[in-house]
Amino acid sequence: MKSFLIKLFLINTALFFVISLIFSSNEVVAAEDYHNSVFFGMSGNRNLSVGHNEFSIMAGYDRHIEATPELSVGVLVEGVFSSHSYLVLGVPVGFYFVENMKFWAAPCFVYAGGGKTYSNVDEIEYFKTKNQFMFKFGTGYSFHFANPRFTALPFVEGSVIHTEFILGLGVKLNMFFN
Predict the structure, then answer these.
(1) What is the domain-level CATH number for residue 122?
(2) How many domains does the chain have?
(3) Residue 94, Cα to own-chain centre: how many angstroms?
């Protein structure tokens, strides 16, 4: 089942990336044109410390600060599914440091559900307690559709939780509004 979800994710990401290139707008959107946005995304993650594959679905809200439109603060909710599933709640701070290129960092709170069966001793340290602190950081490039209110943002993201490092690749769909 996991391999099916990973293949499905990779196919969807590739198709969405190609579609976003075909229908993207060629004009560069200035930071002043960014407004508040709602985003939905998905990513395939790999825990580089333990070796688990994970799949995550996320949703969130970004509010761009009027005094500095390149800067945004938001709310993130993410569900991560693997042999151990958990819920992530975070406060991402984003910054457009180059046209359409976004960097973000987010302190997060992780609630790990119970029911984990450990297959080896190394995994026991992963979640010693149910609740953990996580720090996420990442970058991505916004592809604008013909209507600049909609963008696709392929991204690479790293997460640090306890002593583990998780690398994620995915795509976010953004809808901007005033």
Answers:
(1) 2.40.160.20
(2) 1
(3) 12
